[in-house]
From TrEMBL:
Protein name (Swiss-Prot/TrEMBL): Prepilin-type N-terminal cleavage/methylation domain-containing protein
Keyword Transmembrane: yes
Native source species: Microcella frigidaquae
Transmembrane segments: 21-45
Keywords, sorted A to Z: Membrane, Transmembrane, Transmembrane helix
Pfam families xrefs: N_methyl
NCBIfam families in UniProt: IV_pilin_GFxxxE
Length: 135
């Protein structure tokens, strides 16, 4: 038998063999993808809520800096009558619109609600924002 005949026979066998994936192989791949998706979606949603909470905390920290900076020109602190709205003087200092003044005066309390629904607040002390509403 010549080499040419052997190669032709081999080529015919390769062409006649079955090609592709079996149904079982495809089902196994689909099941694995489903399991990975079931694990990934809750993790992604948890990260999204954590990012929304971080944004609210960051806004509160910025608002606190604006209020403390305004104490230089207005030693009485933000007006309690303006609770819920930020005066122009605070807005000029970078007071974010997503933060509300819950309590005015020197013992101010600022409050923000994250997109995930968590309520955070911060007061005049050295402590940072906490996940509690203003008293």
């Amino acid at each position: 038998m010549s080499i040419r005949t052997a190669l032709q026979n081999r080529l015919e066998r390769i062409e006649n063999d079955e090609k592709g994936f079996t149904l079982i192989e495809l089902l196994v791949v689909v099941i694995i993808i489903g399991i990975l998706a079931a694990i990934a979606v809750p993790v992604f949603l948890g990260q999204q809520a954590q990012a929304q909470n971080s944004a609210a905390i960051s806004d509160l920290a910025t608002a606190k800096v604006a209020v403390v900076s305004s104490l230089v020109s207005d030693p009485d602190g933000p007006d309690a009558a303006l609770a819920g709205a930020a005066p122009q003087a605070l807005t000029d200092l970078g007071f974010p619109g997503s933060v509300e003044i819950a309590t005015g005066g020197l013992n101010f309390c600022l409050e923000a609600v994250s997109a995930s629904g968590a309520v955070f607040s911060v007061g005049p002390g050295a402590a940072g924002p906490a996940e509690v509403p203003c008293p």
